[in-house]
Amino acid sequence: MDSASVIGNIARVIPSFAYDRIRWRNGLGWTREVAQGRLESASPVAEALPSDAWDWRLSIAEIDAEAPFSRFDGIEREQMLLSGEGLRLHGDGIEQELRPPHQRWRFRGEDALVGSPLDGRVEVANLMWRRERVDTTSWHRPLVGPMVIFIEPGSTWLVHLIAGQGMFADASGLGRIEAGDTAVLPAGATRLRHVLEGGGEAWLMRLQPR
Predict the structure, then answer these.
(1) Domain covering 12-130 assigned CATH 2.60.120.10 in the classification
(2) pTM of the model
(3) Transmembrane stretches, by residue range (predicted)?
(4) Which fold would CATH assign to domain 134-209?
(5) What's the confidence (pLDDT) of residue 56?
(6) 122-130, strands of its sheet edge to edge
């Protein structure tokens, strides 16, 4: 099973070394695909989705030099700076900077934006979701002691550990999570509870069906 696949309602921790490194859609950069998946209870779209289409996708872009972003129609995006001295996003009348340590910003997949590193190579986490089917909320939080995550039926949470280390202290069997790893936590038909203990900081993303 490759890192970018999410099968059914299986919770798992994806180690950073398992991410698939692929070209951007426009061929002008590189990204590491973390995971992608469907929310089966989400509202249907005007046109039927292909069987391999995703409702959400998380990846980490590697940006060494100025390059235009790929276009994704019907998609909302949120980016968080993970490393480097900052990234300037500009185009379509938009001017936005992602500054250290971990500034983030949302924009539309249709926006014709160019990413320009401010001072050398940067890495940026990139969450995308289909706006007609998914609602997304995210939080950048410190991990100090136990963190309890309640997942409603039909929803999926993603936990990307930016720094530190942790352990899922529940019956899930997920075990340890290290800096750079990502936990994918789907609920299926029943409400679930996960407990993450440790120290560091995390980006938490809640994906809910519309």
Answers:
(1) yes
(2) 0.91
(3) none
(4) Jelly Rolls (2.60.120)
(5) 95
(6) 20-23, 30-37, 56-63, 122-130, 75-83, 104-108
